[in-house]
Design goal:
4 helices; 57% helix
C-alpha cells in the first residue's frame, strides 16, 4: 500500500466513525427529535427566550414534508461536492499537463546536448567545440558571417 492509499483508507474510516458513533452511542436519545438540525434547534431556543418573536423573512418555498426537505438538501450537497471535485480535478490535470510538458522540454534539451542552440540537437553553433574537443563543423578559416 502506498502512502496515498493509506491516507485515503484512514480518512474513509474517520468518516464512517463520525457517521456511526453518534448512533451507536445513543447520543440524542433524550430528545424528542435527536438529529433535527441546527435550524430546528435555533427556532426552539428563540421561542423559549422570546415567545412573541416574529421572523423577518419567510422561506420562498416550504417543502410539504421533512423527507422532501432532506432530499433537497442532499441534492444541494451533492451538486456542491460535484462542483468542488470538478474544480480540484481540473487544477490537478492542468498541473500534471504542465509537469509533463516541462519534462518533455527538458528531455528534448538534454537530447540536443551541450553547446547546441537547436532544440533538436542538429549541430553546434558557429563551430563551437563539443565535450570531446572535436569540432562539429569543418574549420575553413572563415568567420561565420563569411560562410553565408
Amino acid at each position: 500500500m502506498n502512502r496515498n492509499t493509506k491516507i485515503n483508507v484512514l480518512l474513509l474510516a474517520v468518516v464512517v466513525a463520525l457517521a456511526v458513533l453518534p448512533l451507536a452511542l445513543g447520543l440524542g436519545d433524550h430528545k424528542e427529535q435527536p438529529f433535527s438540525g441546527a435550524d430546528g434547534e435555533a427556532e426552539t431556543a428563540i421561542t423559549e427566550i422570546e415567545p412573541d418573536y416574529e421572523p423577518w423573512f419567510s422561506p420562498l418555498y416550504e417543502p410539504p414534508s421533512g423527507e422532501i426537505e432532506s432530499a433537497l438538501f442532499s441534492v444541494q450537497a451533492a451538486l456542491g461536492a460535484g462542483v468542488l471535485a470538478y474544480y480540484f480535478g481540473l487544477r490537478r490535470g492542468r498541473r500534471q499537463g504542465e509537469l509533463r510538458e516541462r519534462a518533455r522540454r527538458d528531455s528534448e534539451d538534454t537530447a540536443s546536448g551541450p553547446g547546441t542552440d537547436s532544440p533538436r540537437g542538429t549541430g553546434t553553433t558557429d563551430g563551437a567545440e563539443n565535450p570531446e574537443g572535436a569540432r562539429s563543423a569543418p574549420d575553413t578559416g572563415k568567420s561565420t558571417t563569411e560562410r553565408v
